[in-house]
Specification:
By secondary structure, the protein is mainly α. It has one domain (2-24, 39-299). The protein is built from 11 helices and no strands. It has helices spanning 2-24, 38-65, 72-80, 93-106, 109-138, 144-165, 168-180, 194-217, 225-239, 249-260, 265-297. Helix 1 runs antiparallel to helix 11 (265-297), helix 3 crosses helix 11 and helix 5 (109-138) crosses helix 8. The protein is globular, with a radius of gyration of 20 Å. It starts with a helix and ends in a 13-residue tail after the last helix.
């Protein structure tokens, strides 16, 4: 319960930090953008919210394959409620928040952290693989260094895919945690990660489509680059960024692929900054959904009973 309260306050602090960062670094260039299609703007928000619901559904089925009887409402709360905590320096609070929500079911906070990290890593890998697919569909980028970056990420992603899909390491980690846990955490079923990897690719492409719709609502067009390379920008903001929430890093990658699509760097930079504000607005909606569902369902009071493995 203490961590639950901390995550709530950190989520509120996160959005304040994000707004401060954006205000400090300016909004130059936004004045050149004009909303040309309110319908596409609305559709972009709808698609992105839907993507996060699909991700919650993937999380639910991953946990059920682990033997945890979580419901869809609880899965949504565990994914949405801590979403703004990523803007707090530290980059661990989103994982901590999701893990805390499933601890009553997992029997151990440390076990729930391992499962949460495995799921997050699977999303990262599928994002890199989506970017690699873009090299095939769109062709190798004109700038060699950017192409090598995407290709190297895809190779590392493929290697990680093989490693994580093998359950030996995850099973060994969970077994060691359960053995060292003073409360004797229950042994968990370790499922194959391959279904999560496979489902991750279309949900990442849907994320790219939401960004493409947003760009088009402001008169821009990526020519399909957003579908494949926006996932790489998201992954870069998650893994490589030193700033909370990937502020700055994601925008740099986004400006890069929009430039490859033929946009001027001025327009690409303005769209990247506008996309950050748009994305933050959607994340605030998701946080509100998670907070409301959590407050009205008593998610934290779920019974730790688990259904027997089949």
């Amino acid at each position: 319960m203490m961590l639950h309260t901390v995550i709530r306050y950190l989520s509120a602090a996160g959005i304040l930090f994000a707004l401060w960062f954006l205000a400090r670094h300016g909004t130059g260039g936004l004045e050149s953008l004009v909303l040309v299609s309110p319908w596409k703007l609305f559709l972009s928000v709808t698609v992105l919210v839907g993507v996060f619901h699909v991700r919650a559904w993937m999380w639910l089925h991953f946990l059920r394959r682990c033997g945890l009887p979580i419901g869809y409402r609880s899965a949504v709360v565990s994914r949405f409620r801590p979403i703004l905590a990523k803007y707090v320096p530290g980059k661990i609070w989103v994982v901590m928040g999701a893990a805390e929500s499933i601890t009553p079911l997992a029997g151990s906070f440390r076990q729930s952290v391992v499962l949460t990290v495995c799921f997050q890593f699977s999303l990262i890998l599928s994002g890199l693989l989506t970017g690699a697919a873009g090299l095939v569909v769109l062709g190798f980028p004109a700038f060699l260094s950017q192409g090598i970056t995407v290709l190297a990420g895809a190779i590392l992603g493929g290697a990680g895919l093989v490693l994580v899909s093998s359950r030996t390491m995850t099973r060994a980690v969970l077994k060691k945690i359960a053995a060292s846990d003073a409360r004797g955490g229950a042994a968990l079923t370790v499922p194959s990660m391959i279904p999560t990897h496979i489902l991750g690719i279309p949900q990442w492409m849907a994320t790219g489509w939401a960004f493409e719709l947003f760009f088009e609502s402001l008169g821009g067009h990526s020519g399909g680059y957003a579908l494949f390379y926006q996932p790489v920008a998201q992954v870069a903001g998650t893994v490589f960024a030193l700033t909370p929430g990937g502020l700055g890093t994601r925008e740099a990658f986004m400006t890069g692929y929009l430039g490859l699509a033929g946009m001027s760097l001025g327009l690409a930079g303005a769209l990247a900054l506008a996309a950050r504000l748009w994305f933050l607005g959607v994340e605030t909606i998701l946080f509100a959904i998670g907070w409301f569902l959590g407050a009205t369902s008593g998610t934290a009071k779920q019974s730790p009973a688990r259904r027997p493995d089949r």
